[in-house]
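Researcher: I've got a protein sequence and the SMILES for adenosine-5'-triphosphate. Could you write out the 3D structure of the bound complex as structure tokens? I'd like something to compare against our soaking experiments later this week.
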Amino acid sequence: MTDSSPPILRINALTKTFDDFTALHGINLNVRDGEFLAIVGPSGSGKTTLIRILVGMDEPSDGAVWLRGTRIDVVPANKRPTCMVFQSLALFPHRSVGQNIEFPLKLRGVAPAERKARALELLDTLRLPRDYYSKRIQQCSGGEKQRVALARALAFDPEILFFDEPLSALDYRLRKTLEKELKDLHRRTGKTFIYITHSLEEAMVMSDRIAIMKAGRFEQIAPAEEIYARPVSKFVAEFMGEVNFFDLVKGAAPGVALSAAASAALAGQTGTLTIRPESLRKLTAEGVADLSFEGIVTAEYLLGSRIQYRMTLATGQEMIVEVLRENAVEGGIGAALRVGCDLSAAHLIAEAADAAA
Ligand SMILES: Nc1ncnc2c1ncn2[C@@H]1O[C@H](COP(=O)(O)OP(=O)(O)OP(=O)(O)O)[C@@H](O)[C@H]1O
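Model: Sure. Here is the predicted complex with adenosine-5'-triphosphate in place.
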């Protein structure tokens, strides 16, 4: 998979309207062959609407979808070489594991012996014992059902697998296990996975790229590290985790003391400086940093090996700081705190970029 390889899926100016409401606003997206793409966004941003169109459960109002050069938005769902794994799994509870896995093959008229051989192979792929073939779905645990649903989705060797929040109903530990299994399965099968989720954490663990949706549009599509370090908008920055924002107007930001080098670098610029809490380090009274901040600690929270502080600056602005526990602030709440970071840790969202988002 390289950036120059032709996309397996091309979404072109896709629009969906429901009466007078526009759920998708002419979106474009290229998905690479073998990629694991996560689509994340708040409730109502259009994730399900998009995936329903991609798998053929709904029609676009405008635009087109191409799979390896063939237009598929005009092809009925059962004729598309794609498969969907739902949150509800949609397994037949009274049938056996084998019957469930073989179902899509049966629909396609594959002979019984061949179906069984494929089902047993898929049990191996999903790391389920082969004797589960005759086990009833009702007798399977939540995690096992999830694996059976995945095996069934892989049964007819689809070009792309779509996932609609498949892990959201599971408990935390099982979810964490299955996240890793899915990532592993993706690597082993080499298939293209398109995965929608509310959970940014899930998206970050598994995917090659994340597409962030907001109100029927993609805000940013990039690998997780890039979105985290260089968000294109305040919406994306906040979606990716806790962040401090400082308004920068013509090179000056109230509450932020700039070194000479930082002043020179930011001279004349206007926008929003974004600084992640964990990019900040404690400074002594004489300590130097490109950007520095002074305030009074108003709250502290233990986060395992780290401590998070909230502090109020002289400007009245609140700031979040996260340091290793060994660097805890003496005196805690009420203590004076001075922190700083390198200019490279402060990302500038230029004014026009956020306004356009
Ligand atoms: N059949 C429909 N008729 C009218 N409006 C709809 C219909 N389906 C979806 N919408 C609207 O389109 C918008 C996008 O909905 P969609 O279900 O795609 O969001 P989502 O990002 O998947 O949300 P969630 O994470 O809550 O599932 C919402 O405002 C929703 O109310």
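Model: Confidence is low (pLDDT under 50) at residues 353-357. Residues 36 and 193 are 5 Å apart (CA to CA).
Researcher: Great, I'll pass this along to the crystallography team.
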